[in-house]
Amino acid sequence: MIPASDRVIAVALIQEANQASARFIMACRELGLSIRTFERWRREGDSTRDKRPGSSRKKPSFSLSESEKQEVLDLCHSLEFSSVPPGQIVPALADQGIYLASESSFYRILRQHNQNKRRGRAKAATKRQVPSHLATAPLDIWVTDISWLRGPAVGVFYYLYFVMDLYSRKIVGYEVYENESSKQLARVIARATLKENGRAPKILHSDNGSPMKGVSLLELCYNLGITTSRSRPRVSDDNPHIESLFRTTKYWPGYPYGGFATLDEARQWVERFVDYYNFHHRHSALKFVTPVEVHEGKHLEILQNRTKVYEAARAQNPSRWVRSKTRDWSPPGGTWTTPARDNSLSTTLVARLA
Q1: pLDDT digits over 263-312, tens only?
Q2: Which of 52, 181, 251, 298 is deepest in the core (most CB within 10 A)?
Q3: Where are the domains of the chain?
Q4: What is the pTM of this model?
């Protein structure tokens, strides 16, 4: 939006572009204006300032008088209603056959006199920042969560623990238990760290479940130098990659929708799935290479060879490539835990810890 002080300059620039053989509509489009706005500004000449802030408006005939506003204030200050909100004051007065103003008018008058303050004992709600962190390499960020697996009877569940590397999508840790606890989650992450030759991630991202905030997990993260990150309360899509992994797990062919008969059966099935996912599943977000290939850096050579194959095919039959460009097989870039509205302005823990 062009400020009022710059409107004369904008009109002059558009007219100058028109004198250089440019159409008015195209010049306006470059400045983000409509042709009607430009015509109105040109008709007004130099008086193109915004007159709305300084315009005088007639006071509505139905507005409250100063004496009526003072009566509302005196009523709110009275002993009977000093601790009662307007939503209760107005109905109470109506029961007495009195009507002074609406609830919104009560609130507006109190705000004008700086008397509409929070007085409750409960903690005020705070706006939490989106936990948006960027993973540019393996071991930058691990994401974790716990999901239910159906057991042998209705109401009986086993608990599937998953820990996934955000950049490579490799499942670095997994286990199935009969219950969920912080101690068991810490055990899964400790095993995952040992499998990675003792290397721990920089950030561990999870939701706000009690196992993720337990002392056992926090102590492990402190000892390993892992920074914990959690989703916002009651925001289910702040950890989307692990949720997508659980969906892939339960939609994999052979998943027993009737439930697992025993805990050992559930563990064996999950082990087979993890082997398939890590070593055979061609992930769409990874340019259709497997998570293990990305985790070990082998995807660079694979994608480079794919590019050569496509270029050779285009050279052999150029008429088949209408847009003259082959498919983009460049390596995948960084991955965000939760895509922010403007990732360029997001503060990431990875950048701080690198």
Answers
A1: 999 999 999 999 999 999 999 999 999 999 999 999 999 999 999 999 99
A2: 181
A3: 4-44, 78-116, 129-354
A4: 0.69
